[in-house]
Write a structure and sequence with these properties.
Shape: globular
Strand order of the largest sheet: 1-3-2-4-5
Structural class: alpha+beta
Strand content: 5-15%
Helix content: 40-55%
Number of strands: 22
Number of helices: 25
CATH topology of the largest domain: Glycosyltransferase
Radius of gyration: 25 Å
CATH architecture of the largest domain: Alpha/alpha barrel
CATH class of the largest domain: Mainly Alpha
Low-confidence stretches: none
Length: 661
């Protein structure tokens, strides 16, 4: 019998709709039930592409005896961390504080007031490796609840008091040169990337290093990016057949991926490889950028025009089965090309059953042969069971994709990318926006109930402002203005930025986190969008707000720059000016020389430079008073609204932006 999760818009929650566990969605009604029954709440947090979430589900949540015990002694609540990042952030902070580590599935036991008193992650069905079984944990919690209730209540209250204490923003200044030096000490000179295994794609740090190189000429910064981008793209974490990156590499050599593919990773990496190409013209950079954009459009795009959240790691109960190859299988499908491919792509039996992912550690000398073999393998793979797709549309991650696709589409002269970005933006505007209020998710064109958090407002606003420069459509400026106005009204209190709005659901504490981790923090995204908007409008209010937002990351940037990459990138852009560019077109559409001026502006200005484009009188303050020159489209390079003489030729604009070239 299905539980109430069957009505959810979250694919992850719907995966659990047929569990015998009587799951509840996160709601006041669930906590009221716990109060009425005088039982604790069991909170299980995960996401659809999470391998160990699936394992715990199969072992415990599909087990009738476990489900019966949960039903008798607990109210069980299931949360999709991607739909409710606020709930996830609160209880992950508690889990890390109480256990020293975090991860998903996250298993937290709460009082009916939402106070956490026992936390963990994955619990096996049976005792193994020194880990208590899930049933043992449940029985111990039940015993403590019945016989040591005051102790549990006390733990919960202390956790809320300590973790909910307001953390003032740091007073450190951004020392960008020192941040680069600290990153050098953590850089792996052999295998690239930062730190040891597992290695995650350091997208935001790479973006910062590219911006730093552009401003200062620091060749070490560019070399770290080039080495890391090369190793990631040639290793097993990158899909050599269809493009797109897996979540991370289990090992330190970028060989063994954790196979889930996330929208946010691929959006951020698309932007990095496009940016790297503008500085290096490395053919690998362009190829990976185009293939990654192709992956987004072919495999993550939804019928409504948005982008789905993720592809699952598992297929038919086995992680990575869709992506791996055995030598004998290759010989069967490739014939005389098999041994050549096996040697080229290092198919040596890395995984169970003697299979491997494909790597491409060097460019093949016979490109035609490689393309033929690649096409054959893609056709063979298409007949396998395709990984599950979490097709909910998340506003923040779509915002990242809109920005990345817009920049790539302009810079690489692929207008279909810009069209896809605009379609995604229209979906967010029409489905997720209700007045000024933004909702976080939708599925099948139906809006979810979760309020947007700071990252949703900021990432989508930045995507809209990027579209403004590429399309000349002032509607995107007006949407961004509404979003950022609400950010200042609802997410800022006494100069501090919070991840949830003041009028959103009140949780046990109001989360705020300036750490750039798998995705940019909400506050660093806010700093970026606010400084972009301030540059297009000349608004002191928004410029001050941007600097306040940036200051929230100052302590992290000074001590652990790996976890402040987006904040450092924004600080780097500010340190370089910032410039503003206005491209005035002869009509409503950007064609001919106006389009080429826009392309040069995106490709040759410092990454993240605010760009406005369109007809005179567009309604964007930066465009006011900027006209055509002799009836021809013109570009104005400005700083604080003081502009140089306009130029009408793309090569002259390039010279303005890169005089040393």
């Amino acid at each position: 019998m299905a539980n109430e999760l069957r009505r959810s818009t979250s694919p992850y929650l719907r995966q659990h709709a047929d569990n015998p566990v009587e799951w509840r969605e996160w709601s006041e009604r669930a906590f009221a039930e716990a109060r009425e029954r005088d039982v604790p709440v069991f909170l299980s947090v995960g996401y659809s592409a999470c391998h160990w979430c699936h394992v715990m589900a199969h072992e415990s949540f599909e087990d009738a005896a476990t489900a019966a015990y949960l039903s008798e002694h607990f109210v069980s609540v299931k949360v999709d961390r991607e739909e409710r990042p606020d709930v996830d952030a609160i209880y992950m902070s508690a889990t890390v504080a109480m256990t020293g580590q975090g991860g998903w599935p996250m298993s937290v036991f709460l009082t009916s007031a939402g106070e956490p008193f026992f936390c963990g992650t994955y619990f096996p069905k049976d005792t193994r490796g020194g880990m208590a079984s899930f049933r043992q944990v449940l029985e111990a919690i039940t015993d403590a609840w019945q016989h040591r209730r005051e102790q549990l209540d006390g733990i919960g209250k202390r956790v809320v008091e300590q973790l909910g204490a307001h953390q003032p923003a740091g007073e450190e200044a951004f020392d960008l040169h020192r941040a680069v030096q600290l990153l050098k000490t953590e850089f792996d000179p052999v295998d690239a990337g930062f730190g040891r295994a597992p290695k995650f794609p350091p997208s935001m740090v790479l973006d910062f290093l590219l911006r730093h190189h552009r401003r200062t000429g620091d060749e070490d910064a560019l070399a770290m990016v080039a080495h890391t981008c090369d190793r990631m793209a040639r290793g097993g974490m990158y899909d050599q057949l269809a493009g797109g990156f897996a979540r991370y590499s289990v090992d330190g050599q970028w060989i063994v991926p954790h196979f889930e593919k996330m929208l946010y990773d691929n959006a951020l990496l698309l932007d990095v490889y496009t940016h790297w190409w503008t500085l290096s013209r490395d053919p690998l950079a362009r190829r990976v950028a185009e293939e990654t954009a192709g992956f987004l459009l072919a495999e993550l795009r939804t019928p409504e025009g948005g982008f789905a959240s993720a592809l699952d790691a598992d297929t038919e109960g086995e992680e990575g089965k869709y992506y791996v190859w055995a030598p004998d299988e290759l010989r069967q499908v490739l014939g005389d090309d098999a041994d050549w491919l096996i040697e080229l792509c290092d198919v040596t039996g890395t995984f169970e059953h003697g299979t491997s992912v494909l790597q491409l550690r060097r460019d093949p000398e016979d490109a035609e042969r490689w393309n033929r073999v690649r096409s054959t393998l893609a056709q063979v793979r298409s007949r396998r069971t395709y990984p599950g797709r979490d097709d909910k549309v998340v506003a923040a991650w779509n915002g990242l994709a809109i920005t990345a696709l817009t920049r790539a589409g302009v810079v690489l002269d692929r207008p279909e990318y810009v069209e896809a970005a605009a379609a995604a933006a229209r979906l967010i505007r029409e489905v997720h926006l209700d007045g000024a209020r933004l909702y976080r998710t939708s599925r099948d064109g139906v809006r979810g109930s979760a309020d947007g958090v700071l990252e949703d407002y900021a990432a989508f606003a930045q995507g809209c402002l990027t579209l403004l420069g590429a399309t000349g459509d002032a509607e995107w400026f007006r949407v961004a203005e509404g979003l950022l106005g609400r950010v200042l009204e609802q997410f800022v209190a006494d100069g501090s930025y919070f991840d949830t709005a003041a009028d959103a659901e009140q949780l046990v504490w109001r989360p705020q986190d300036a750490t750039d981790n798998a995705t940019p923090s909400g506050v660093s995204l806010a700093a970026e969008a606010l400084i972009t908007f301030a540059s297009l409008t000349g608004s002191d209010r928004y410029e001050t707000a941007a600097h306040q937002a940036l200051q929230a990351s100052a302590t992290i940037a000074a001590r652990a720059p790996r976890f402040a990459g987006r904040a450092l990138a924004v600080a780097e852009t500010i340190a370089g000016g910032p410039l503003e560019i206005a491209v005035v077109a002869a009509g409503d559409s950007l064609t001919g020389s106006a389009r080429e001026l826009v392309r040069v502006a995106f490709a040759d200005a410092p990454w993240g430079t605010p760009i406005a484009a369109g007809a005179p009188g567009l309604g964007v303050p930066l465009m006011d008073g900027r006209g055509l020159v002799g009836g021809s489209p013109a570009a104005y390079v400005c700083q604080k609204f003081t502009c140089r003489l306009p130029v009408t030729l793309p090569e002259h604009l390039r010279r303005e932006l890169r005089p040393t070239d």
